[in-house]
Design a protein that fits this description.
The chain is mainly β. It has no helices and nine strands.
Length: 68
């Protein structure tokens, strides 16, 4: 099964994001707890404080965080 990446706007306001066996692309995240399991990728594109107040849980050896 292939994975699909979608560019999403910034998330803010203390939200949670769960990624399981998928790819998610954001400009930035703020005050977000991210939990990644399985073969997961999180791509953050902004260069100015792109994950302010975030907690990123890489709960798999196949979970990756990218800042291109």
């Amino acid at each position: 099964m292939g994975m699909l990446a979608v560019l999403l706007p910034a998330i803010s306001n203390g939200q949670t994001l769960d990624i399981t066996n998928g790819i998610q692309v954001f400009d930035s995240l703020a005050n977000t707890t991210v939990t990644m399991t399985g073969h997961s990728e999180l791509w953050i594109n902004d260069t100015n404080n792109p994950i302010s107040g975030c907690v990123i849980n890489l709960n798999s050896p196949d979970a990756w965080l990218f800042f291109p």
